[in-house]
Request: fold
Amino acid sequence: MRIASHDFIDRSRLARRRRTFFSAVFMLTSLATWFMADLLWQDGGISALEWVLLILFVLLFTHIAIGFVTALLGFYVINRGGDSRQITSTVKPGEDVPLASTAVIMPAFNEDVSRVFEGMRVIFRSLEETKKLEHFDFFILSDSNQPNQWIQEEVAWVELCKQVGGFGKIFYRKRRQQINKKAGNVADFLRRWGKSYRYMVVLDADSIMTGEALVKLVATMEKNPNVGIIQTAPRLVNGETLYSRLQQFANRLYSPLFLAGLNYWQQYDGNYWGHNAVIRVQPFIEHCALPDLPGSEPFGGRILSHDFVEAALMRKAGWAVWLASDIDGTYEEGPPTLIESAKRDRRWCQGNMQHSWLLAAKGFRPINRFHLGMGIMAYVSSPLWLLFLVLSTIHVFSLVRHPPAGTTGEIQTSLFGYAIAVPEAFTLFVFTMLLLFLPKIIGVILTVQDRDRATSFGGRGAVIGSALLETLFSALLAPINMLFNSKFVVYTLLGQGVSWVTQKRGVGDDDADWREAIITHAPHMIFGVVWGVSSFIISPPFFWWLSPVLAGLVFSIPLSILLSKVSLGKRAQQWGIFLTPEETQPPYELRRLRQNLAECYKHMRPLETLRDDYGLLQAVLDPYVNAVHVSLLRQRRPSEESRDYFAQLRTRLLWKGPEELTTKEKMALLLDAESMIWLHRELWCQPSHALAEWWRLAMRQYNVLTAAPITALYR
Amino acid sequence: MEPPVDPVAPSTRFRPRTGTMEAWNAAYVRVEDYLRAHRIHNRLHQSRLIQAVLERAARRHETNPALEPTTLAAEEIEAAMDEWFAGILDDKNIPPDRIAAAGRVALLISDGPQKWPYAFLDRHHVPPDFARAMRESSMQAGPDMQFSNMVPRPIDFGTISEAAGETLERFEKWPVLRTLVLWAVFLATLLAIFRATR
Reply:
C-alpha cells in the first residue's frame, strides 16, 4: 500500500482546511434553512407538503453552498498569492528533471479525422520543440465503427507520419470490437503496451496539450513517486458559435476561483476527469480494471463514467491524485450548441447515476465518496429543483384557496421616506442570489483589478459587459437544462435510454436546424406556457417570482437557435463580447491548429453521390489506400462458410454498388484482407460495363482528383 | 514465359492484331488511370509503360480473343508490379498475396514516384538509393507488444448497494412487477397532489 503525499501537507493542516470548507457549507445551509423554515412557519405550522419543500430546499441549497464555499476559498487562495501546497511546486522553475517513457494516448470514436490528426500533429511538433520528444510515444486508439472514419484515419495516420517523420513514434490502433467504450479502449492499450511505459497521458479527441505542459506533467510525476494521477484543468477553446463562446468565456473567467478552492481542500484526494491527465501506468493496470455493476444498462452494467471511479480506486490503493490547475497549455473543446451539450449531458448523467452503487463501496476514501455524490447531484439536483418549483406552485395554490388568517405576506420598509412593501421571502431570495452570483462577481473583480488579465479578456468594459450577458444567458439556460437533466434522470431510473432526433449533417454554418430545435424544445416551451398561465391564474405575484424560470422555457426554441449561430459568435467576437485570453492572445499551438485545419477544410470534397461511401471507395480503388489498409489488417484464415459469405458480399459490392450493403457488411468486408485485395484487383480488371454505375462514377471522379490525393488531411 | 516489361525499349511498330479499337482504347485508359492512381505523373515514363503493358496484353488476346483487352491489360500491369515489387523487396520475406500491398506501402512512404520518376517498374535500372529507400520503408502501426494482465477486480459495494443490486436484478427479471411498482408510484404522486391541494 502506497502512502500518499502526507509529507507534502501534514494531516492536521489538511484536516483544518477541510473542516473550514465543510463547516462553511454547513453554516450557510443551516442559516438558509432557518430563513426557509421561518417562511413556511408563518401560517402557524409546517404541513406535510411544507416539510417536503423544506427537505428539498436543504438538498438544493447545500449543492449551491458547496460551489459558493469552494469559490470563496479559491478567492482566499488567489488573494494571498496562491497555494503553497500545489503539486507542481515540487518541480523548481528551470529544473531539468530526467523524464521517463510516456505514452500520449488519444482514443477516438467517429470523430472529425482532420481535427484528431491535426491536433496530434500540433502536440507532436510542440513536444519536438522542447527537445524531449524521445521520451514520448503517441497512440491514436480508434474505436470508429464507420467505414469513412476508419479509412480516413488510416490515410491520415500515414500522411501525418510521413510529414513529421513519425513512423515508429506515432502509432495507430483500431479495435475490431468496441468493448467497454473508452475505458475498454484504454484498457486494451494497457494490456498490449502498458508495460513499455511508466506514464500515459490520456487525451480526448479534441484535446490539445503543449509540449511544455506535457514535459511539466511528467517531470512532476517523476518528482513525486507516490502520485498516481495528475489532472490538469483544460481550458475550453476554439468555440465558434455563440453558445460555445459563452461557455468558454465562463470557463475561463470563473474557473480559476473554483479550481483554486478545489485544490485547497481536496489536495491529494483529487479527482480524475478522464482526459488531459497523466497517469502512472503500473498501479493503474493493477487497480483500475473496472468490474460491471449489478443489473444492466443504463443504471447497471458497464461503468460509463469511469474516470471518477478510477480516481477512487487509485486512492483506495494509496496513490495520490492531484489537480494541477496551474499548468498552462492544456485545452479542450466544448459542445457547439445547447442540444449537443444536452446530448453529452445525457451520457454523463447516465454514467454519474451509476455511481450510486459505489457510494457505499468498501475501502473508498470519504472525499472520493463526496466526489461521486457531487457527480450524482450535478444531475439529480435538476429533478429536485423541478419538484421544488412544482410543489411550491401547489403550495401557493393551497395558500390562495385557504389564506392563513392574520398574515399579509409582506413587511413594510422605508426608503427615502416612501413606505415600500417587501415580500417575506425577499431576504431568502437575496441570500440565495448572493450565493449564486457572488463567485461570478468575485471572478470579474479579480480580473478587472489586474490590467494585463483584463486586457487578455478584451479590456475592463468587455469583461463586465460579457459577464453581465453571460449571467443573463446562463439564467435563461438554467431552467432548460433543468428539464433536460430531469428527463435524463427519470429515464435512467426507469431503465430506458433517451431517443434523439438525428442531427442533420452537411448544413452550412448558419443553416440552423429549426426542425431539431423545435422537436427538442417544444415540450420545454409548452411546459413553460402551461406553468406560466397556471401560476398567473393562481397568483400574479407568484408568476413574477417564477418569471425568470418561465422565460427560459418559453423562449427555449429561439434561444437555442440563436446560440447555435456561428455568425453571431463571430460578430460577438468582433464586438469584444465573450473574449478569452486564448482568443486575444492565442498560443502558438492553437494558432497552428487553426491554420492547419483551415488548409484541410478548403480542399474539394467528393461528389455528394460518392461522399457517403468515400472511405470504402478509397480502400478499394486507390492502390495506396488499399495497400495501407490491407497492411494494417491481421492475417487470418477464414472458414469455408465465411469465405462464401465474403464472396457474395464482394460481388454484390462490385456489381450492385455500396448502397446494396449495410454498414455492418461494409465493415465486415473492410476487416477481411483477402476480400480487400480481391476487390482492388477485380475493380481495376473489370471492363466498365461490368461494374455498378456507382463504381463507374467513382473511377471517373477519382481519376480527375488523383493528381492531388484526397486524404483526411486534404479533404 | 512472357518477356519482362521493359519500358525503355518498347516496340515501335506495335499494333494489336485482334480486338476493336474501342476495346484497346478502353484498355489504354484503364492502364493510364491505374498508373495515375499510383501517382506516376511522368508522362514519358507512363506512355512507355502503357505501351509495354498493352503489347503483352495484345499477345495474350491473340491466343484468346474472347477476353476483354481491359481485363488483360489490368492483369498484365498487376503481374508486372507483383514481379517488380518482389524483386525489390526480395529480402523481406513477404507472403506472395501481400507483396503488392507491401510494395505499394514502401513506394508511398519513400515517395518513390516523386523522387525517382523513371524508376517505377524498371527492372534494369533501379537506382540503389531508391531500392534502399523501398526496403527501409516500413509502417509500424504499434510497437512490440508487452502483454499485461489487467483483470477487473470485484468492488465490494457495501450492504445497501448489494441489496439494491439484487432487488434491481430481480426487477429486471420480472417486468410485470416493475410496471406495477411504477403504477403505484404514479398513483401515490397523484394522491399526494390531491391531498396537498385539498
